[in-house]
Structures are given as C-alpha cells and as structure tokens.
Amino acid sequence: MKNKFIKSTLILIVGSLLTKVLGFVIKIFFTRIATEDDINLYSIIMPTYSLLITFAQLGYTLAISNVIASNKKSSKKVLFSIIPVSIIINILLISLIFFIAPFISNNLLKNPDTYFPIISIAFVLPFVSLSSIIRGYFFGKQKMFPHTLSNIIEQIARLLIIVIFLPKILKFGTVFTVSLYILFNIISEIISIIVFLLFAPKNFVIKKNDLRVDINVVKDIMEIAIPTTSSRIIGNIGYFFEPIILTFTLSLVGYSSNFILDEYGTYNAYVLPMLTIPSFFVLALNTALVPEISKYHSDKNTIKKRLIQSLIISFLIGLISNIVVFIFVEYLLNIIFNTIKGVTYIRFLAPFFIFLYLEGPLQSTLQALNYAKYTMKVTIISTIVKLIVLFTLSLLKIGLYGLLISEIVNIFLVLYLNFNKIKKILKN
User: Quick one: which of 59, 376, 56 has its CA closest to 221?
Assistant: First the structure.
C-alpha cells in the first residue's frame, strides 16, 4: 500500500505531462487555423465557459473520491445516488442558461455574437458532469491509469477534430465556428466516458437496490463538493473583476486602453503559461494525495509524512522550473510562442512563483481532512485582498506591476493561512 501512492502519482505525472503537451499543440493549431475574429470571440466567451463548467463539475471528482476512499459507503451506492442529483442540477443549469443568455451577451459581455456560443455551452454541461462523477470513482479506488488514458485520448480526439473539421466550418462565419467548436467538446467528453467504462470492474453488476438514492451519501458528497466548488466560483469571480479593476484604475491615472489591453494580454497569454509550465505535476500529485490522506485521516504521522513528501517534491519542481525559465526566458518564449513579450514580467515573478507550487499540497490535505469550508474562506479572503492590493497599487501609476505584486501577495497569504491551519490540526 505504501507504493500505491507513489505509483498513482507517477502515472498521473506522466499522463498529465502528455496531456499538457497535447494541450499546447491544440492551442497552436487552433490559433493558426482559426481567424482572428474566431479567436477573439472564443476568448471573450471563455470566462463564462469556465464558470458554467465549474457549476457542472460541482467538485464531484474530489468529493466522490474522498467518500469512496474513506470506505463509508459502497461505490455503486455513491455513483447511483449522485447521478440523479447531477441530472436535476444540469436541467436547472440548462434552463437558466437559456433564460439569461441574452442578458449575458448583450449587457455583460456587450457582444450579441456571444449568444449562440453561450447556448452551445449548455449542451456540453451534462457530459462534463458525468465524466467528473466517473473520474471521482476511479480516483477513490486509486486507479489512476483510466483517468490518464482517457485524458490523453480525449486530447487526441480534440486535436483531430480541430485539424479535420475546423478548416471546413470556417466558411460559415465566426458565430457558427465558435459555437460548433464548443459543441465539439461533447464528442471528446463521450470518448473520455467510454474509455472509463472500459475499465469498469467485470463484476460490476447493477441491481435494483443500487438505483435508490441514498440521501446520506448525497449529503456526504455535497458537504465536500459545495465548499470546494464555492472556492472555484469565488476564484472565477475574482478573475472576472481583475481586468475590470485594472482597466479602470490604470485609465484613471493616464494609461491608454491600448497599453492596458496589450500588457494584460501579454500577462495572460505568455507570462502565466511560462511560469506554470510544471502545473501538471502539482495537479497529479494533489489528485493522488486526496484519497491517500482520506484513507489515513486518523493517522497523523502518515498524513505528516505524505504532506511533507508532497511539499518537498512540489517545491523542488517549482524551483528547478522557475530557475530554467528565469535564465532561458527569451529562448523559451521564442520557441513556444514565437515572441519575446513579457520577459521583464516573467523575471520579476519567477522567484515568487516557486512558492505557488506549495499551495496545492496544503489545500488538497485540508480538503481531504474535510476542511473544504475553510479553504473556501481562504479563497474569499485572498481574492478580496488581492483585488484591494491591485486597486491600490494601480493608482500609483506603476503599470502592470500592481497586478504582479497583488499576485505575489495572494500566493503568500494563501500559504500562510493554509499552513497555520494544518499545523493546528496536526497538533491536536
């Protein structure tokens, strides 16, 4: 059992690396095949897409993984208790999207062309939900290979769809192209679900009693899922307000809109991706850590051991990655993005982003110990503080450095709050 954690982590690391590489390739092909209007419309819709996907996933993967790993209920009971709940939530979500899509497109995004892409998102959500539920089952069983394989095949399917079908639909216009591109996610999600089902246990027989919803199971899942999802929603809301506050304050002190758009675009398109290249590793490590901590929730020595291992490995990966990026930033930017924009920002942030990789193990440990509500509070506090720092520093006429410093403050505040909480938990 000792090696299961390490084995699961290694499988996820390899799979996440391949998925990350394929993700980069997909971005390259999309930006080279699609027109500038297609890319701009898709970029505008992405915050809305991310927010709705967060509601659809509802933290199922983490919550189901936790409940199954703790052996409180049978796996089948967990699955067939949450699936009907997910169906109801998706019906409500789809209905809501159809109702508010005109308001979002015309009043919030101020772009009528976003209406049909928003409607397209609604049809993707049920498949995302089901995929998250099945993924949670395999994570809870600490079977990471099905997840790894499904992710890789899903990404390959997306790549093939872009290469084969995207050029053929461009002639129908921007709105149609972006809407259909979003709907393509249904195909990739179905492929992912099929791969998972191929790894279902051979003795997995569904009986009539299994189809009954266990309210206690639903309650256990929701007690973890809702706070976890709330944290992601709060984070998305923070990201939503970030460019609004930045644009308002920098315009107020005399910066042109072209400067703001160009610098903020550089930050999101080049700076953050370069600094978070090894994020696949941390995600893999954290995914494997949750069921491991859940299983030994009463054994503080094992929890400490696993947490320390995860922190050391995460820190070393972050250290090596950011040193390489710091030294070879011009070369890497040129090779990956065919630009050298953002060099100064990357070098400014790189020493601090080393500590970003410590956030994952701390947060995953708290969630596995059923402190998801606390991590939600931390997200609220850190988001509010970040936006206040961003607003205040941007008034000092230091360009985008107000945003960079607010990011650094956010990293260390989250680390401080989470580390102190875990320290208290493991002392008691």
Answer: 59
